[in-house]
Amino acid sequence: MPDNESIAAFRSSYRQTLIGPHYRGWLHFAFTLCMTSVTIIACAWQLHHVSWAELATVPLTFLYANFAEYFGHRGPMHHPRRGLRLIFERHARQHHRFFTHESMAFDSSRDFKAVLFPPILVTFFLVAFGTPVALFLAWIATPNVAYLFALTGTAYFLNYELLHFAYHLPREHAVSRVPGMRVLRRHHTLHHDPALMTHYNFNITYPLADWMLGTLRHQAPYASADPGQARRMG
User: Fold this and answer.
1) R_g of the chain, CA atoms, integer Å
2) Is-contact 33 155, C-beta < 8 A?
3) What angle do CA 190, 192, 197 make, to 5 degrees?
4) Does any domain span residue 16?
5) Interatomic CA distance for residues 79 and 188, integer angstroms
């Protein structure tokens, strides 16, 4: 288990080698917010006379996205896969060393790079993954179904980024008082325990897939020996 000195040393090295001098964390955050918001608004603008049957696309897309988040996290983010090695390096080798269950918070806005998806990947996911599926749905169903899929999928991705960002804010931040945030933050904090990260709590948003697939964990392995420490992690 890494100690505070090794975490501080890795953070210092990461900042020197992987965060360029011109990086601006809040600009990165604004790009993610604007790119996804524009996509959501554009899709909503195209909807016309949506039927109840077409509205079923929203919960189905949410469920699809929740399981995609789960398997993407449990799979290539924590296990090297051919062609996806960069995702493994960025998540398991960098993000999980930068943030552990004992040191979850940003030190400054420059640390946002260790949490937010790079702009190029945001664009890639929206265009390369979302567009072909939406076009296919428009062909086999209706344009409304395609736009509802794109809208819901993009909204889910934005929700993912905002929640993950919130988990790494200082514990005393006002966002921590949002209803449900403490539970979700604890869920993700437990995942950042090196003893648990490859086995439990792979949902970063809502632990639906974790619950259904038996990988939901509520306590650290040492909670029974030191309940006070488990409470401090909550």
Assistant:
1) 19
2) no
3) 90
4) no
5) 18
Please indicate, yes or no, if residue 5 is contained in any of the structural domains: no
HSE-CB for 79 with a 13 A CA cutoff: 7
Q: What is the pLDDT of residues 138-169, one digit of tens each?
A: 999 999 999 999 999 999 999 999 999 999 99
Number of neighbours of residue 161 by Cβ within 10 angstroms: 20
The amino acid occupying position 224 is: S
CB atoms within 10 A of CB 180: 9
Cα–Cα distance for residue pair 149/89, rounded to 1 Å? 30
**Residue carrying structure tokens 């924590």:** 78
pTM for this prediction:
0.90
Give the C-alpha separation, 28 to 23, whole Å.
Answer: 8
Confidence of residue 233 (pLDDT cuts 50, 70, 90): very low
In a domain, 11, yes or no: no
Assess if residue 13 is contained within a domain.
no
To the nearest 5 percent, what fractions of the chain are helix, strand and coil?
Answer: 65, 0, 35
Residue ranges making up the domain that contains 201: 24-233
If one counts every other C-beta atom within 10 angstroms of the C-beta of residue 89, the result is 12
* Separation between Cα atoms, residue 19 and residue 9, nearest integer Å: 15
Domain count, the chain: 1
**Helix axes of 181-191 and 143-167: crossing angle, nearest 10 degrees:** 80
- Give the tokens for residue 34: 């604007």
CA distance 122 to 206: 20
